[in-house]
Amino acid sequence: MKIYDVLRETYSALSGNKVRTGLTMLGIIIGIGSVIAMTAIGQGAQNSISSSIQSIGANLVMVMPGAQRSFGGPSGGRGGAQTLTVGDADAIEASVSNVAGVVREVTSRKQVVATGTNTNTSIIGTEASYSTIRNVAIDEGSFITSQNVLSGSKVAVLGPTTRDDLFGVGATGVVGQKIRISGSEYNIIGITIAKGGSGFSNSDDAIYVPYTTAQRYLSGNKYLSEIDVSAQSSDVSAQVQTDITSLLMQRHNITDPTKTDFNTMNQADIIATASSVTSTFTALLAAIAGISLLVGGIGIMNMMLTTVTERTREIGLRKAIGAKRRDINFQFLTEAVVLTFTGGFLGIILGWLIAFGISYLGIVQASVSLSSILLAFGVSALIGIVFGYYPARHASSLNPIDALRFE
Amino acid sequence: MIEIKNIVKTYKTGDIEFNALNGVSFTINDGEFVAIMGPSGSGKSTLMHILGALDSPTGGTYFLDGKDVSTLSDDQLADIRKDKIGFVFQSFNLLPRTTVLRNVMLPLIYEGVASEEREKRAKEALASAGLDESHFTHLSNQLSGGQIQRVAIARALVNNPTLILADEPTGNLDTKTGEIVLETFRKLNKELGRTVVLITHEQDVAEHADRVLFIRDGLLIEDKKKIHKHI
Questions:
Q1: Cβ contact (<8 Å) for A324 and B87?
Q2: What is the pTM of this model?
Q3: Looking at CB atoms within 10 Å, which of A128, A136, A351, B61 has the fewest?
Q4: Domain residues for B102?
């Protein structure tokens, strides 16, 4: 029997019963498609969450003021207290080990005026190390220098969104112009590169000034609104966080750890929590997809078994007119392979289309992984071939007389 | 030419042995039209299976065109069926949802005949079996019983066999259609010189043949040659 004839026989057998062939393939298509799409969505969600956390900065430990300690009076609310000082930041820099850098910040929201336009945005008083620790890159001009901080100069670096609001979208030649914040005039010395929302704040819609300037002209006091500490690696960030907590408790004369006037947040913890959530989510999706693959597999199994049983007489006839056992085996194996591979191929396309559609709609940036394709395809191909081949092997070994008499 | 000598076939069910054939011998020459007759349980079906190389005898010898068929392996028997035997079954056994032409070409696929040659031979066989050309592209399930059996006869003819073996070919047909099918066999035998062996339990079907072999209890009890009424 020639290969061409085997393929023609296969085509004729599969197209002879289009409904059954279609349903069998549908099982494979849905099984494979859902595994691929769902793992792609889970993977995409995980990627987007960890990359957005990563964009805040590397191995960050953030220290923020807690509630104002008041005895009996109304609570000032978390973050509203004025408890962190430049001295605290200096102490952290000097005595906590494994610290790569410390950033002092004084943040407030102010009305900003340029020639003819104005906007309301956050004014981040900070220092030179901010750009490296918080992953803020400069597009044009320069970032705040330590000289600016020392002298408390009135210079400002604009985020691209703020630049667009004040000078028009994509405006050039902004560096060197002046803006007014709370009645004082500031020289624009740089524009940052857009990095998108980080999930906590939008670093593109902000104006950066030296923190000393912010203390003097904007907040009018010596306190800091946040201290960002960068640990040398993600392994030591927990130790850095504990050390900062005990150092600040000592400096603020607090003994009860539940009554601190500051909060610390460790980026590694946020990532770990977020990825444990997303991996649970991925596992859930994979489980649902796995069930549909299993159901698809049982469908294939069922179809193959009925097909072969139903065609026992045909097998008997083929043997009677001269087909050898291997001709029969080969024909049924080819049918199973063509069926599962065609279905598998369509399933991969379907999964890909779903993943693409979801990415296109911007729900989540789904990423199709090769391993999920191989897994889904492998499982269904295995089921299809085993359950297509095994009953055919049995039928082909029957005596043609018995096969012809089979009812 | 078919020569069988002392054919014995024993079936074993557990410890019980049953002899379906108890030593049957006869010779059928090329171009004969023979009916094998007998009541059910006589062993005629077993004999047909052995003649058709579907089964091997337990004892005795079977020479088909001078070749000993009684000791061959499964695959060698398949080759014998492919090259030397054409089957016509009581229940037709055409492939469903498949055209007449493809059904007839099926044996040639296993022989590895080129596809134009296959189509040519299938059309010739269908013409010999007396099926109108307008039916060639019909699906097998769109035909009447008589037409189906003629397609089956064409399929049995297409590989140019030494022997056409028909097992109760009229069993599922009404008398009138049955007559037409039997006439087709007669025509093949007379005009194309085909050797035809008919297995039946009906006297009037056996009447169509030139020679009738009666089988009972696994033995050949009568070998009756006669001049056919049409001649």
A1: no
A2: 0.68
A3: B61
A4: 30-55+79-225
